[in-house]
Design goal:
The complex is a heterodimer. By secondary structure, chain A is α+β, with helices and mostly antiparallel strands. Chain A contains six helices and 13 strands. Classes of the chains: A alpha+beta, B alpha+beta.
């Protein structure tokens, strides 16, 4: 008797938990039910919602092993690339400053088919990340980079436009599903024109100014960049995001990245602004302050002196004695 | 105060000059009769499209129109005739002076739209004026004003008793130049120690809510309304309004554009906005600003936008402004939809570098004391007074 009561209580408990989860998820998804993708009033997949990539592409699109730091320097074996150590700007952050490894998001062998001269620039970019990456300056992140940065973004799917609002730098894209004039100038985020191929939203993106990167590893492109994005629902809460990347000035042939975008399922999810313009002012203008906040400048060069003190009781021998 | 209002509202459309100007600014006013207000396929009022207010209406009713809520068509035509007849910033002063060089931003950069129907955007209180400031806000403003005047006191602006120095005196550089401003600065001070001394507009952070100028693109889906604001000078921004009963984010979280919560009342999107940041100002209000916006699609080509502005620490009572937004060509894809002021802000480092150069020259006895130069107040006010707004030349 006692056992039977327990099992029926468990059954009820499980049932309510399942219903609770289902209701919570359904609220956030709008019209979606179960794992079937949501549809708009005219039967197209409905991508409206808050989404985020969940991978390492923002560090490096290519397949890569973990690195000791986002900037590194030769260790005691100067000839061994694999033995590089964290460099001064991030060394004080210890294991929090490294770059996680990843199989990458580039289809095929995980490598970007750079032309030889472009490969040299990419390598230089990576070595000079702090000096060169536009992300550090709070510049508009560009496309596709905005799609897989470690911040949520929101899709608002209207009747003839799809608006994308990004957390980082308050950037935005408008995808035109209807007739639209071309852009009168080149842009950071590109000029996006979309159409439906069955359940896939295909977006042609052109009109770039060539000032953006793909990631923090120095992967880059020119103003000749042409993207073909494909958004296909996998479930109600995941989109297959694929981009064919063409730029004959930089790459030997078109190449492709693909990754899922995941719905943020928190019931209270909303974009919280990341207003980074003034976050980057010291970085950009610190050298022309009357009284510098970062105290060590050589001309326009910021030199960051890092202090990492060992807290009381945290020295090795103290720890050993405990 | 005048400069601050212009800073907020007028930063906006830096476009072109009267008459024929609708065409030049890309704005359109369709003369055909409007149809009924459309609904989205999912049954909500449809606010989508590109919208702007193609007419110029002062936020507050100028004194000379005190008894009048609306202009007649004849009055508007006469005002436009007068307004088109002044040189504005094309007026030149003595060649080679700083004031003349400052006029390089000439009338081409000024936004002068045709006179609107209303004499003020403010409809409540009925006198069309912002209600009096609270004693607390007056004190705050007074402290800020005194600080600004102290930084200005050694300049030609005070020597000449220009309006920008009203209430101040001409005397040697103030020791207050070494002080922090009394509250977080959002306007131009006559000091260039770092970016924080310059106006938010010079830091590419001009846009604030509410916004009465420029263009906005509205895209909506069930449960969400997004608005991309173009507020001029590449300082526009993207807003997302959730339609939700969820409470606002915790009071400890402050955002530049506040926290918006929308709901539908009939044909009207009602948006409650709180949680503003102390780093940004709308007129005299900061983090205690509370807005209730009402976006109503009244017909096929018009949205009525009304906003009730409340801040008990700033104004003695709430006030309401209203404007009509007119639908624009949906095919237009102008570059102002990509705000990128910050990416090209060469002005900030060169301004600061210039200040450092002047300081070095002064230290060597090779130039004037930088404290005697006015790099804060507006120039180019010689170009006549606008018959509608009562303003002279200012652009930013």
């Amino acid at each position: 008797m006692a056992t039977r009561m327990t099992s029926s209580m468990i059954a009820v408990g499980i049932f309510s938990a399942v219903v609770g989860v289902a209701v919570g998820v359904a609220l956030n998804r709008g019209a979606a039910s179960g794992s079937r993708p949501a549809r708009t009033a005219d039967g197209k997949p409905n991508f409206s919602g808050v989404w985020q990539a969940n991978n390492e592409a923002y560090w490096d699109l290519q397949a890569h092993e973990a690195r000791a730091g986002v900037v590194t320097q030769p260790g005691v074996y100067p000839n061994y690339e694999f033995a590089r150590v964290a460099a001064a700007p991030v060394a004080a952050l210890g294991a929090a400053a490294g770059v996680p490894g990843s199989l990458g998001v580039v289809d095929g062998d995980g490598q970007i088919p750079y032309k030889p001269e472009a490969a040299a620039i990419k390598k230089e970019n990576g070595e000079n990340w702090i000096d060169r990456d536009p992300e550090l300056k709070c510049y508009l992140p560009g496309t596709p980079r905005a799609m897989y940065m470690p911040y949520p973004f929101q899709i608002v799917q209207g009747t003839n436009k799809i608006e994308m609002a990004f957390t980082f730098a308050n950037a935005a894209r408008t995808i035109h599903l209807d007739k639209v004039e071309g852009p009168p100038d080149d842009t950071y985020m590109g000029h996006s024109v979309g159409h439906w191929e069955n359940d896939t939203l295909v977006v042609d993106v052109t009109g770039f100014n060539g000032k953006n990167w793909f990631d923090r590893a120095g992967n880059f492109h020119s103003a000749a960049l042409h993207l073909t994005e494909r958004y296909t629902p996998i479930t109600a809460d995941a989109i297959r995001y694929e981009v064919t990347i063409e730029d004959p000035e930089t790459f030997m042939r078109p190449w492709k990245i693909s990754m899922p975008l995941y719905r943020r399922l928190e019931s209270n999810v909303q974009l919280i602004e990341y207003p980074c313009i003034d976050f980057a002012e010291e970085f950009l203008y610190g050298h022309v302050r009357k009284k510098p906040l970062v105290t060590h400048w050589e001309g326009e060069t910021m030199i960051v002196d890092i202090t990492r003190k060992v807290p009381p009781g945290d020295r090795f021998f103290d720890w050993y004695r405990k | 105060m005048r400069n601050r209002i212009i800073g907020v509202i007028g930063v906006v459309v830096i476009v072109i000059i009267v008459a024929g100007l609708l065409r030049m600014t890309g704005m359109s006013v369709d003369k055909q009769a409007a149809g009924p207000a459309p609904k989205t396929p999912w049954g909500e009022p449809d606010l989508q499209g590109i919208w702007t207010d193609p007419y110029q209406t002062p936020l507050q009713r100028p004194e000379k129109f005190a008894s009048k809520e609306f202009f007649t068509d004849e009055e508007r035509a006469e005002l436009d005739r007068q307004r088109a007849g002044i040189p504005r910033r094309d007026a030149r002063v003595e060649r080679g002076t700083e004031r003349d060089v400052a006029g390089a931003y000439n009338a081409v950069f000024q936004s002068v739209r045709p006179t609107g129907k209303r004499t003020s955007l403010i409809v409540d209180p009925p006198n069309g004026r912002i209600p009096p400031l609270t004693p607390e806000a007056q004190k705050r403003n007074q402290a800020e004003r005194e600080y600004r005047l102290a930084l200005l006191q050694a300049t030609v602006t005070c020597k000449n008793q220009d309006a920008a120095c009203a209430g101040g005196k001409y005397s040697p550089p103030s020791p207050r130049r070494l002080e922090m401003p009394p509250i977080y600065n959002t306007g131009r001070t006559n000091r260039n120690d770092g970016p924080e001394d310059r106006a938010n507009s010079e830091r590419c952070m001009a846009a604030v809510l509410p916004d009465f100028g420029g263009f906005r693109r509205i895209v909506q889906s069930p449960g969400t309304v997004s608005i991309l604001y173009d507020t001029g000078q590449g300082q526009g921004w993207q807003r997302v309004i959730p339609i939700t009963q969820n409470p606002h984010v915790p009071s400890s979280m402050r955002q530049r554009f506040g926290d918006s919560r929308g709901h539908w009342e009939g044909n009207t999107l009602v948006v409650d906005v709180t949680n503003f940041s102390p780093k940004f100002s709308f007129l005299d209000a900061r983090e205690n600003l509370h807005l209730v916006e009402r976006w109503t699609r009244v017909d096929s080509k018009t949205i009525e936008y009304a906003v009730t502005v409340e801040d008990p620490t700033t104004w003695t009572k709430p006030w309401t402004a209203k404007q009509e937004l007119v639908q624009q060509d949906g095919e237009a894809n102008r570059i102002y939809f990509e705000p990128r002021c910050h990416e090209g802000n060469y002005g900030m480092p060169t301004m600061l570098l210039g200040a450092r150069t002047e300081e070095r020259a002064f230290a060597k006895g090779q130039g004037p004391d930088p404290a005697t130069k006015d790099t804060a107040t507006d120039f180019g006010n010689e170009g006549g007074v606008d018959a509608l707004t009562g303003n002279a030349g200012a652009i930013f």
